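input
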Amino acid sequence: MSLARILRIVALVALAGAAVWGAKLWLYPAETEAPRYLTAVAARKDIEQVVLATGTLEAFKQVSVGAQVSGQIKSLKVDFGSVVKAGDLIAEIDSKTQENDLKNAEAQLANVKAQRTAKEAVLKQAELAFTRQKKMLAAASAAREDYETAEATLAATRAEIAALDAQIDQADIQVSTARLNLGYTRIEAPIDGTVVAVVVEEGQTVNSNQSTPTIVKIAQLGTMTVKAEISEADIIRVSPDLPVYFTILGDADHRYEAHLRMIEPAPTSINSDTTSVSSSSSSSSTTSTAIYYNGIFDVPNADGRLRIDMTAQVSIMLGSAKGAVTIPTTALGTRDADGGYTVQVVDAAGNLSPRKIHVGIEDETDVEVKDGLADGETVVLGDSAAGTSMQMRMPRMGL
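output
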């Protein structure tokens, strides 16, 4: 057999094989692989919708105890951490100056009272002279001029006594002030509490004429107040009486619970602004500075674990649900006019079907399904309502 004949036979066999293969593909097309989706299974869990804020702990009540008189600190009766009752002696200021001031005021008062006693004798004499001149004038045995002189002397003496009475009142006030200043040399606790700061030392001189010097600071630590900074984006969603909880950096697993007591009406930045409220508001609106408002609540501190200036990670609860059916928020499509959403549900065979659902509260990742979806059903993640689900050539997985 010639080479040319052999080549023709090979070509015919290859052509026949190609025809058979093509006929098979045409008559028995290969099954195409079904599209696979990134999915998640609806599951029950406890869900909370919260506003997050960072807070600072403060004493429920804190008082700066100052000196109202000048002088040298003669003795300090407390130290850091001392527990005091209202009226307890905190410190003593050298009282020599105040004692001398009181003695001087009392001497001035005694002097004015003595002047009044002497003037009363003059008044008695003036009254007798006036009475005598009056009788003599009636009997036509004295001149009118003498009568008028006696009358004027009596009136002047009475006026002088009235002036001395006023001076006595003034001297009484000076004595009272001096006695108060002497009492101010004993610094007493105005409230029950714990000494959290001692600002001065024994032997130090304080001057109350320039500003009221602080001796110690006393705080009531049985209850702590938390000031949580809430951003302006979240402030419209919160209101007083909402439940809150927080953790501290040293014990992130323990939750302290309370209720929001109040929300300050002005932002925290107002405390550092010396201009008026109106100008502060206008200037804030023209800057990119973040605006925060203080949400305030109180928490018991019987064990003393909470301390001043601790940082609190605060969660303000807008809503919560126990054992709710939830799905990832990425499964939601575009919101419908009636407030619902359409999700794509995957059955056991991998087929998709649209499902109308209504949702409730949501946290950072999941959303509560109120109706339209059962526990254990699988939904496609992505904007399924718009037909743009995350279709992937990958094995189906549940998140």
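quick obs: Residues 95-184 form one domain.
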